[in-house]
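Quick question: what would this complex look like in 3D?
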Amino acid sequence: MTIEFKPSPSLPPPQNSVGAVAWIRKNFFSSPLNIFLTIFSFYIIYLLFPPMIEWALINATWSGESKAACTAGGACWAFIGVYFKQFMYGLYPAEETWRVNLALIMLIVLVAMYAIKAINKGLLTAVILLVYPVVAFILFSGGMFGLEPVETTNWGGLFLTTLLGVVGIVASLPLGVLLALGRRSDMPIVKSVCVVFIETIRAVPLITVLFMASVMIPLFLPDGLNFNKLLRVLIGITLFSAAYMAEVIRGGLQAIPKGQYEAADAMGLTYWQSMILVILPQALKLVIPGIVNTFIGLFKDTTLVYIVGMFDLLGRIQAANHDANWLGTTTEGYAFAGLVYWAICFGMSRYSMAVERKLDTGHKRN
Amino acid sequence: MTDRNMALAQLEPGEEAIIQFTDVNKWYGEFHVLKNINFSVKKGERIVVCGPSGSGKSTMTRCINRLEEHQKGQILVDGIEMNDNLKNIEAIRKDVGMVFQHFNLFPHLTILENLTLAPIWVRKTPKKEAEAMAMHYLERVKIANQALKYPGQLSGGQQQRVAIARGLCMKPRIMLFDEPTSALDPEMIKEVLDVMIQLADEGMTMVCVTHEMGFAKTVADRVVFMDAGEIVEANTPHEFFENPQHDRTQLFLSQILNH
């Protein structure tokens, strides 16, 4: 007869080391200082949150035709509702805004396709960088294929913000890489050009660059050679953030051990091969936090185009605040702008963290 | 250097050298790191270069594929002069494999990708073919089962064997080893030396900077001893270890052999 081995059941862990009580004790009340900080934090939350929720949700007015409709004493979200289309698209004709939406959806679908294994990533990148911009430009400005032309002066709101941000981000990264490589080059002329460019741009505020782009350049250009203000501003923003990007990337290049350059050289790779195949993939991965930092900074800096008479999201909100029907809704406007910017920037930051994790092949043993 | 040793660092007339140093000098700023190096290696020869640290042995080896530039004298590798001509340098680097002290594998690529990178981009070998060849060499260094891992997941000895396989994938005519076992834990040195001995047995031309005197005794055709930027002595391993000619050589050998 075989005797089956039956272990007696394990004793439960000590009462105060598991469960909600233990968790709270460990995380909130582990030392006198922590007890104090916990109580202090809850007091601050108690002071701030109930009034905020009361203002933003409980006493808020969600619909109405003017400020007069907001009588509950809370936030007047009706203002955002009435102006929502303008905040999103600026003065883009209401019946044409589907074009903006379509372009955005196309971009999201294209980027999402990176997740599909079977797709050739090089081809997809080529489509996004070369084909998509042309399609998007045709959709936005019209005048072709029976699309109603829309002047760039009417582009505005979050659409303009996104356009400036995306173009700035996509164009400044490769330019930044070239500037960083140039600054580390052995060729004296290339090196000096890059150093002078980077240091000059970093020494002036973005407002100056935008002002130059929108006001000064047309003065210097001969008649008839003038080109679109939006394009000039886009170039200004791109050059500006490329200078910052270059320094971030240079930091990454310097962090790559000399042995990696030597191994690539010893194999007979050319300069560009060793940069593209060996050095940059490692360097860029190292400085993803810095790159995203620059991206987020650039995205928020686009609000400065207000100075040169372009109405992005914040510009549109400020303009709407002057509407006599809605006087006194400044707080709601800025709260809304803050929420939108926060959502987008937080999204970028989370996305970059995911990319970092995905690209981590472990310099150390894991 | 005595005349006899000078003769040993050189070749007999009529023998064809695959590597030829003639009066090579190099300075790091003021520091004269290589002094009048005359040295040649013929095809299929296994050379071990040894000497105290700072003697210029690594620098001399790295001049062969121009990871270091010399300022004076002439270096011919496979009949091609090493100078500022990028075409020459790239041509030589295709044919000269190098193994480094710190492996220098590319951490962002898998082992297999590390091996196929240069064949695909420099030799323009089709990907499938390059992968088959890479697996063949990984098989030879007994590490084929790690092909899809990343370098960071391998031990030092395994990484160095991968580095040797990576060099071999370019089907080089010369292999340079720059202290290949110096960064390894003692128990991993043997697995790397075994691969190098196997390579030597197959007739590969090798220039190897190392402190592994056992390896020098069994494998080398000639041992070159450097000190203070000069070749002090060059001799067959037997003569070199049994009958060192120069005081400095004797001192060096007494320091590394008796402890």
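Answer marked as accepted. The interface with chain B takes residues 257, 259-260, 262-270, 273, 277-278, 281-282, 285, 359, 361-366 of chain A (CB under 8 Å).
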